[in-house]
């Protein structure tokens, strides 16, 4: 998900900067930074010491067959969710937990009670809309079941325990709900001149995850914390007014039933086209009859090995598409759905181009895209992601549309492929995704929208007392801090790890290994930490401890520099001190009077038993200045001690 209140984020970060500038820094303690026993848990049958899934790793499975109908006039969905749940754990289960996320929009929900009077992206204070599920029936293996609803969760009692190691149960739930116009910036209904756009997510009861870490994961949905879901196959039959067009997660199975003959021809042309092909044009949208109709069409979709399913429906959609080329030789299809208000080459007319190139880049760089289609939908969300489909704001255009498209599709890798627990470890999807977005942006169209960013500029924002640690649960941090703690700071940490600590080759190999080994599984932060260390061969607990688990500051400074025996021809002795709590490999640039320069790097091991370090730099030329971190790659909180002027200091 991407935040749409950018001014609010920047205000919060500016406030953090003011606070950080005035805070007292703690002194560096190398024994604390490098103390042993960072990993408290030994290897288990389910999780190996090297960060891989263990030899007896298991996870449960949820397959869904979904039928849903849309009542456009009432904004109401009526559906049936049929779930085949497989218990692969070592435990017999007496009950099941499901997620009822639509209950967030019940006026008496816990999440609604948390909306401040000043407002929130997750809801409106005092909103009279009263949504939530109306459950008609719940059946287990064809028999009525006893169930209890608690806010956004449902517990179903089982008449017979569900056996371990492969026991299956069939759940059938009949339900309905009225969709909110603005569903916590994750779904909603947007009016346009050619009809409403329905972007539907968190719309069917979904299984909670039962795992080897917590058993049942039953944290309620409060708005900020996103999702943790089981994998399986999903088929969906979506019945809408006959003049609507539907896009959804996965593969459209019945295009001949829902498209005209000409549209089917265009659809097939798009499957084989590098360039964007219009399937349903703006002219056709404007001319079409948008009056309410009792006639319906049913659109059928299927997606495999997925953790969720979302869809969108409207009379207002322009549709276009183009072929996606994947590294293995397989093909996928980039699709865009947007209203005429969003049309144009400066806006959504480039959406499919953005989608195609984004998917192709991430597939080549990290792991191949697994789904038959990638759909970008213009709605009223700032940006939200689901398997095979994303929702971006209809008013996005230019670099903004590129950025939100790239970000939301980046989430296919984190957390759709690598299925971390977003409700608890939000940084593992938003932060990782923010990091890979920066590489993608540099890659797109020869850097069309790329501008090199200095992490140094963000330093004070990263180390403020106003921020919680990165590893704080999303629902446990101030909303104004979400941008910094879920996105920017963990993303910057990954960049530092790649560019300063490990180097691109080591880092990329390790991250690819993590993605491959945990694809469609449920890793924890420790699994990530262990993988990066085992593949790279480097000890990194000092970085995990300081950057992610704590709020340690970075501050290195040059405290002295003197020519050997008083002559620049004999070289120079430089003393660097670590003032901040978090050590970092040190880069020193010596700038000579003739305009040339020399760079020296000190490894992290220098700081394992020292708070300051003096070293000689061989040179025979007169030095003007000596500078730490010349490229601004490190968010050092005090740059005043980063530059040493030789001419002034040695007068």
TrEMBL record:
Presence of the UniProt keyword Signal in the record: yes
A Gene Ontology molecular function term of the record: peptide binding
Superkingdom in the source lineage: Bacteria
Keywords, alphabetical: Signal
Pfam families on file: Peptidase_M1 (PF01433)
GO cellular component terms, semicolon-separated: cytoplasm; extracellular space; membrane
UniProt record, GO biological process: peptide catabolic process
Peptidase M1 membrane alanine aminopeptidase domain mapped to chain residues: 355-547
First and last residue of the signal peptide: 1-22
Entry annotated with the keyword Signal: yes
Protein name in UniProt: Peptidase M1
